[in-house]
Specification:
binds pyridoxal-5'-phosphate
Length: 401
Amino acid sequence: MIWDDEFSAEIESWDHAGLRRRPSVLASAAGRTCALDGRDVLMFGSNNYLGLAGDSRVRDAAMTATCQLGVGSSGSRLLSGNHALNEELEREIAAFKGAEAALVFASGYAANLGAIPALVGRGDLVVSDELNHASIIDGCRLSRAEVRVYPHGDARAAGELLSGERHKYRRAMVITDGVFSVDGDVAPLPGLCAVAESHDAVVYVDDAHGVGVLGHGGRGTASHLGVSGRPSLIEMGTLSKALGSLGGYVAGSRALIEVLTHQARSFVFSHGLPPGVLNSARCALRILRDEPDVVETLADRSARLRAGLGDAGLRVSPGDTPIVPVHVGDAGGATRLAGMCLDAGLYAPAIRPPTVPAGTSRVRLSVMATHTVADIHLAVKIISASAAKLGMIRTFAPGSP
Ligand SMILES: *Cc1c(COP(=O)(O)O)cnc(C)c1O
């Protein structure tokens, strides 16, 4: 291909900078253990927080729907691709979230890319957290609204931006991840709702890592922080993480959902999800609704991991989520630590620049509700022994591995 020389040069530069990505290959169902790159690993690096991606009931739901209804949706949802399962899933999402209605998109990424430009455009203001997910950033760019970025998690700064700029614009929207994927910290939604409401603005929360994880029965970050149902709040989420399937959604008022149905281009100009995916998402949501204890189990395992790593002398951030970063500092150290863990059978990825600022590289562990207490102990043992060998633990707590 005539651009191959250019491409090769670019790829070589990534190699030099240590930024070349080579995706690991998964050859098993997603579970607490996985076959990754030809070896069995204890999985502490997935978004499969409730283990539902490999759950036999969810698999059966996919299989039944696929056998009865076929594979593809065969059309955009506004034409012939709106299978009844979409409507059922949307009703169930709305009921779960306590909203009037919901709309399902092909993915979480597609939901943000479609919903944000459907809600704001030229002449509107978006006030955005500096660590928001790429799909939010891309949705904002596509919207052509004016974007102002506030320092991470700083509701007061968001308020100051609104105070200074709100009057120049038609609509204003504060936008944030509910749970931030890099550190597992939680957005200050009560503060953001308060400043938004005092400036006639809305808050759009992307709860990709919050639904199924935080709040009453896994109802998400807004529920966790006591702001669900606030009229200023628009809740978006994904079916692909804790719910183990695929798809994104927005839940809210009937009028909001009607506007998105007409205006969200990623909804209008893309096929509906296949029946197997829709039915597996429905099944996962029902499991979450009927067995809310899994959310408590997840919180218990996450707390055990945080405590265990802390006791072993590692630097972990406090928090309520299953995302547990072990802070290393330099990128090489994080890569070596993750590599040693992998050699010992524990998969937990190194997170390095450009994902995080230089000097703040870490190994990030994500906990699953299906991890046993023994799995947690083993993970602590492997990572603390590896960190000790690399000279990353200065003070050894007595009794640690
Ligand atoms: C993962 C993620 C998405 C994308 O969701 P997909 O369903 O994987 O497309 C969007 N927003 C945030 C905050 C995410 O973490």
